[in-house]
Amino acid sequence: MTGNIIEIVSILAAAIAVSFGAIGPALAEGRAVAAAMDAIARQPEAAGTLSRTLFVGLAMIETMAIYTLVIALLVLFANPLAG
Amino acid sequence: MDSPLTLEPLFHIGPVPITAPVVVTWAILVGLAVFAAVSTRHLKLTPGKVQTVLELFVTTVDGQIRDTMQRDPAPFRALIGTIFLFVLVANWSALLPGIEPPTAHLETDAALALVVFIATIVYGIAARGMKGYLGTFAEPSWVMIPLNLVEQITRTFSLVVRLFGNVMSGVFVVGIVLSLAGLFVPIPLMALDLLTGAVQAYIFAVLAIVFIGAAAGESPGRPTSEQGETSS
Lengths: 83, 232
Hints:
heterodimer; A: mainly alpha; F1FO ATP Synthase; 3 helices; 0% strand; elongated; B: two-stranded antiparallel sheet; 6 helices; 2 strands; globular; transmembrane (chain A); ATP_synth_csu_bac/chlpt (chain A)
């Protein structure tokens, strides 16, 4: 029964981790894209440089969400408590 | 569903279990080495198609290193270029059916990050001397020593988890979608994976440049060209 409880809690923990961990990066990506759009609207000739930097920045921000995904998968598949 | 964190050995060489990512890594290494050897055997002054692409690649890598480090790119070109090419090919090896990219497993990424970690120390000592390199940990004051030590570990760790998480999540999502819906639905996701793979390879290489550049310092370095051995 104890293992069962740990599994249930693990699944809940994974879901909560991903859902709340996605909030911050989502807001950050929105702000980044908005700022890049603004910059491209002001300076269309710099669009190439801007979008390249934007992609790299987005990947960096997205990594934060990926961290929580890794934690969730650790909890689900490699949980040290579940035995 | 299979766990993305565990691996089943394919076969054993003596007591050493060999897993699928190791075999794919070997194949990529051999492929890259053969490609490099064949395509650079007859270099001409007026380049053909392949040589033009290679020269473009080398020039781009050189430009990135020069922009980021403000140094002569020659000592770092081999290491950074190899890291970028390997990670890119490894990420894109998912294109071949039945092959899972080796970077989707923690061990490959840990090995790559370890190479970067050791290269940071080696280039740092080579550029500043042992005393000078250890002195950088006490900048701007000795209070920062624990923080700088922790930073060395955490940034290497985040290098591992960043590459692993991005590639693995791509593989994972495609697997889930494939088990839910049939033939053509995962194709956009796989296209997104290609973009992610290229961007992650670029980021990994750029971060390696940044770390090594920070360890080696801003000063225009002595021409040190025989340190490429540490990179392999």
